[in-house]
Amino acid sequence: MRIGIIGAGKIGSTLARHFAGIGHEVAVANSRGPETLEDLAAGIHGLVEAATAQDAARFGELVVVTIPYGHIGDLPDAVLRDKVVIDTCNYYPERDGRDGELDDGSTTSSEKVRAATGGNVVKAFNAMYWENLRDRARPAGDPERLAIPISGDDEEAKAVVAGLIRDIGFDPVDAGHLGGGGRKHQPGSDVYTAELSAEQLSERLRRI
């Protein structure tokens, strides 16, 4: 699969390594330009290229958006429309600025990413410490394999993302729809940054 990654911070660069390592083609972008990502791309084993955000979005059959929530207005929305979009973003008002609709709970950050992009958005990779994402992949059946909650409204898109999560060494757990499900694994929730197995995560999500 061709995967575009917009955002080359800790989550973005870690996912680039994981996805390239299992044979996917990856184009990764940041806000500073592809020339600043040449060392990152060269240091990853596999098919990885540095790109602009526009080109990464165009390249990917699936696109990971892993930027500060406050910058979602900068996304190349026309290119992302109708694509599978993995949203790793979290809303931190002290960093992103206040968003009244998020503060009063009338919507969620992922629903706003969907509105901004027109993509088939799946929220994932937002609730795990990046070091665990980097270091704690395990084979299926390993008792130390960690789970990752996902949420979304498009079942086919969720299935694609769930498959990627399994392939890189974690267990996906469906938290539900993009709005209600996404609330269950946003910052401040009982599963946010928790280190849980699939069974433990499923049980905790049922209680939220």
Structural commentary:
With 208 residues, the protein is of the alpha/beta class. Helices cover 38% and strands 18% of the residues. It has helices at residues 10-21, 38-42, 53-59, 77-80, 93-96, 100-103, 109-117, 130-135, 155-167, 180-183, 198-207, and strands spanning 2-6, 25-29, 48-51, 62-65, 84-87, 120-123, 147-152, 171-176. It has an 8-stranded mixed sheet with strand order 3-2-1-4-5-6-7-8, with helices on both faces. Helix 1 links the parallel strand 1 (2-6) and strand 2 (25-29). It is globular, with a radius of gyration of 16 Å. It starts with a strand and ends with a helix.
Number of strands: 8
Strand numbers in spatial order across the main sheet? 3-2-1-4-5-6-7-8
Largest sheet: 8 strands, mixed
Q: Classify the fold: give the CATH topology.
A: Rossmann fold
What is the CA-atom radius of gyration, in angstroms? 16 Å
Which whole number gives the mean pLDDT? 97
- Helicity level: 25-40%
What is the count of structural domains? 1
Structural class, from helix and strand content? alpha/beta
Indicate the low-confidence ranges by residue numbers. none
CATH architecture group name: 3-Layer(aba) Sandwich
At the fourth CATH level, what is the homologous superfamily?
Answer: NAD(P)-binding Rossmann-like Domain
Q: Estimate what percentage of residues fall within beta strands.
A: 15-25%
Number of DSSP helices?
11
Separation of the first and last Cα atoms = 34 Å
Overall shape: it is globular
**CATH class category name:** Alpha Beta
- Secondary-structure element series: EHEHEHEHEHHHEHEHEHH
